[in-house]
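We give the chain.
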Amino acid sequence: MKISTLNPIAKVGLDLLPAGYEITDDFAQSDAVLVRSAAMHDLELPEQLLAIARAGAGVNNIPLDKCAEKGIVVFNTPGANANGVKELVIAGLMLGARDIVGGVNWVQSIKGQPGVGKAVEKGKKKFAGTEIMGKKIGVIGLGAIGVLVANSCAALGMEVYGYDPFISVKSAWNLSKEVKHIGDVNEIYSQCDYITVHVPLMDSTRGFIGKEAFEQMKDGVILLNFARDPLVDDDALAEAIAAGKVKKYVTDFPNDKTANMDGVVAIPHLGASTAESEDNCAVMAVEELADYLENGNIRNSVNYPACEMGVCTGAGRVAIAHKNVPSILSTLTSKVGELNINIENLTNKSRGDWAYTMMDLETEVSDKLIAELQSVAGVVKVRKVK
């Protein structure tokens, strides 16, 4: 297997690749790809490409639909960088509550003058802030990062409101009992002194925090965005800052507009920029990729369903990426039966328009079987796993 790395991937992850795997600089020859932030939308995807593993959570740099249509499974690493992002969010809270950035910049502006100590004592009142203890914070999105943020804020003595209509069982179990679960996001807008957003960027969440949301917020609210830039409507934000509705906007995703706004604390996308996060993401991405290439198992895919059958102990295993349409599974099993091959084990999972089937067989996977399965309408890729 030839693995292409479009960005530097931590060695601790690459060292986990099975023996015989080769790292290549030739993308056109790749069987699989490890990537962080490199843009892939304009790349010509090789015909033999099987999978892409994103060492991070966001996948807006990867053409998910095009990959699904070619049977290329795309993975991400949810939660691997969660602690690193959580710690920066807590730092962002402090930067929003206290004018630390303004104070530091002011000291730098007078450091060459005599009597800096006296000037500091006289001028520090310009940078006075507030404490976060006892304040209300709304955490929108209770995934891996949102749960950690909510729990940490509760431990710091804040009154925490959590909103996530799609919260997973795992997240619910991990959420502190001190966090108040809110069923209507508008309650967060109207009640909270701080609001931090941790939802994925999708078409449905683009501009999620917009004019209507700002209108409901308390005057002087502090908004934090360590998820994705387009979740907040920049034009509506500018109006809210000018009107005093938003006191500060702390973001890890500055752009041409927000970087030039007063009241914005812009951090250069440092959420996952820790040695620990990079190592964790690399390890998780390589483990997912290797399990898929070696066993056909899918964990944490963003365009195909989760599907696992462990390690194959039979004579052969075949994996099939196909459209999620009626009767296709029966057609696939019929093709196997017509070749007088017995299926020892089978699993089939679907997700939206796409589905994935694995079969363990009593005989080796032949080229004829692959050709027969590939001929079924709706099948996009058939792979001999073993």
In short: The CA atoms of residues 243 and 331 lie 62 Å apart. The chain has a mean pLDDT of 96. The chain is about 30% helix and 20% strand. The radius of gyration is 25 Å.
